[in-house]
Amino acid sequence: MFRLFPLFIFTFLISSCAFQSLHRTKDINYISATTQEDLPNKNLDVYAPKKANNLPVLVFFYGGSWESGKKEMYHFLGNRLARRDVIVVIADYPLASDYQISAMQKSALAAVNWTKDNIESYGGNPDQIFVSGHSAGGHLASLIAVKEGDLEASENGKKLAGSILIDAAGLDMYGYLEETSTGEGKKYLNAFTDDPAVWKEYSSMYFLTEDLSPMLILEGGRTYPSIQASRERFMKRIEEKGIDDVTVKIYPNKKHIPMITQFLWTGGKVYKDVLGFIEEN
């Protein structure tokens, strides 16, 4: 037993690429008053292998009910994916109650456009950019995916390689708030206002088209019922539109928060799913 334990640790470190050196470039300003007058200055971090060359890129937005969170809390995700040869960009964005969902979406779009313009200098492939997020961040990623036309095109005309939504909230925020805006949903009105037209404008299911880039949806089998119900309505719309390249994977025993904290363990199924999706697209 005493010999097996060190061997196990060594095998784990090798399998997770733990010895690979990384460049972590922090606090890069991607929004300033000169570029977006209606948005606050916001920064992002880039995680990349030191010898990165033409690698796929994941732009990640964190969750926090659209009112909390910061990029520094997710360095584990950047580190671990970068050690698996994926360049990771983690961006801060405006939060409620100081800002509303329109500013959050503009900020998220600016982060992806900054990545398209600059990631080549960090060893990333601007034609292989994926958007991702957990919870409220998954909602922002979904908006970028369904409104891909708002993004700048790369030189070859490609915009997104795909999207990865991790226990995403708000795929049908309109339907959710119609039922709950005077009850449990009232707390989200700081971000989404009390205007049903705004709820619909920022519900990604209403903007689905046949041109949707490949999408991977990861959901906990024990997540919040509102997330499950919203995803089911989203997928019904996917079927009605005849969109084929959307994959849903349910993690039977996972609750909402463990859907993101599972990325702490590099040997977990989630890495196989995410890296497999990136490799295929």
What report would you give on this structure?
The chain has 281 residues and is α/β, with parallel strands linked by helices. It has one domain: Alpha/Beta hydrolase fold, catalytic domain (Rossmann fold), CATH 3.40.50.1820. It has helices at residues 4-15, 75-82, 101-118, 136-146, 173-180, 189-192, 196-201, 225-241, 258-261, 269-280; strands spanning 22-31, 42-49, 55-61, 87-91, 124-134, 162-166, 215-220, 246-251. The protein has an eight-stranded mixed β-sheet, with helices on both faces. Helix 8 (225-241) links the parallel strand 7 and strand 8 (246-251). Helix 3 crosses helix 4. Mean pLDDT is 91; it is low at 1-17.
Order of helices and strands: HEEEHEHEHEHHHEHEHH
- Helical amount among residues, as a percent range? 25-40%
Q: Widest sheet: strand order?
A: 1-2-4-3-5-6-7-8
How many H/I helical runs? Answer: 10
Q: What's the number of extended β-strand segments?
A: 8
Distance between the termini: 42 Å
Low-confidence regions:
1-17
Mean pLDDT: 91
Looking at CATH, which topology would you report? Rossmann fold
Task: Briefly summarize what is shown.
With 281 residues, the protein is an alpha/beta fold. The protein has helices at residues 4-15, 75-82, 101-118, 136-146, 173-180, 189-192, 196-201, 225-241, 258-261, 269-280; strands spanning 22-31, 42-49, 55-61, 87-91, 124-134, 162-166, 215-220, 246-251.
